């Protein structure tokens, strides 16, 4: 059965993705800071290389798919960390596995972005531009200097979505597919931490999708499973909003 590497596998959406894919019979390589098949810190260049090497060893050089789910939210210990994990932890891990994805003859990837990537940041934003220029030191410096976790979170999700769409063009020419899921609020420890934070709690509680509820990790896992399946064989470079109508509400005159 296909081998799929999932980052952020130990919690929330990543854990639900793993449960669903395993149920479907896939072989998984779980990647996280701890309690995973590959324990590595995706916030640093060394940790990312370690994650890539260990994943390559475990898949034997041929990988069918990657789900890049690891991420930190607005309550992260530093603003720069948001950029380090949410953008570079995705891009460098994927780049390191490109050859293995090609080797399988059917490489696919899903990046878990966020509805925040299309809402809160006016593109082009200097922080997002630095990420897309692959300049981690500059992106982290701008992020830390700004002291604005929401802007950094939105910029990281905007940039990783643009990165994914650019990659999808390249990959699609080689028979591979890459798509991005943009979840709205989903009931996970990350979301709960923002609700519990006195700085952000009220705003998060008041920002409710038209469906009147947050999503469940299983609802994001179902969308991921679909995008990796042959049912999605002509879908590449898409951004799938799984957000209870949030994006349609906020960007009422755009798409
Ligand atoms: P979560 O905190 O439950 O899970 C995130 C996982 O990523 C954890 O297991 C954590 O250990 C791992 N991780 C964080 N930093 C890491 C690092 N440096 N190296 C390796 N692993 C690391 O959160 P979640 O809500 O399941 O988030 C999953 C993804 O979904 C994130 O990218 C997040 O931005 C995105 N997202 C979440 C929501 C939401 O409301 N929950 C909404 C939109 C997007």
UniProtKB/TrEMBL annotation:
InterPro entries recorded: NAD(P)-bd_dom_sf, SDR_fam
Record protein name field: NAD(P)-dependent dehydrogenase, short-chain alcohol dehydrogenase family
Species name: Marinobacterium stanieri
Source species taxonomy: Bacteria, Pseudomonadati, Pseudomonadota, Gammaproteobacteria, Oceanospirillales
């Amino acid at each position: 059965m296909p081998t799929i590497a999932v980052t952020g596998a130990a919690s929330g959406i990543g854990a639900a993705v793993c449960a669903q894919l395993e149920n479907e019979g896939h072989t998984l390589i779980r990647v996280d800071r701890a309690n995973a098949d590959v324990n590595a810190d995706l916030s640093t260049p060394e940790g990312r290389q370690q994650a890539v090497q260990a994943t390559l060893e475990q898949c034997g050089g041929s990988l069918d798919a990657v789900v890049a789910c690891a991420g930190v939210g607005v309550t992260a210990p530093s603003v720069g960390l948001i950029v380090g994990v949410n953008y570079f932890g995705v891009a460098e891990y994927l780049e390191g596995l490109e050859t293995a994805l090609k080797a399988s003859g059917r490489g696919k990837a899903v990046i878990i972005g966020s509805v925040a990537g299309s809402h809160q940041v006016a593109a082009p934003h200097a922080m997002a531009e630095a990420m897309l220029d692959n300049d981690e030191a500059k992106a982290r410096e701008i992020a830390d200097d700004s002291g604005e976790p929401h802007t950094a979170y939105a910029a990281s999700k905007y940039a990783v979505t643009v990165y994914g769409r650019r990659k999808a063009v390249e990959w699609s020419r080689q028979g591979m597919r890459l798509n991005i899921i943009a979840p709205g609020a989903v009931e996970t420890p990350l979301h709960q931490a923002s609700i519990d934070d006195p700085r952000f709690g009220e705003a998060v509680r008041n920002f409710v999708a038209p469906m009147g509820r947050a999503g469940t990790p299983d609802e994001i896992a179902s969308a991921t499973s679909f995008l990796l399946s042959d049912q999605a064989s002509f879908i590449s470079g898409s951004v799938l909003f799984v957000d209870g109508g949030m994006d349609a509400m906020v960007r009422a005159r755009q798409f």
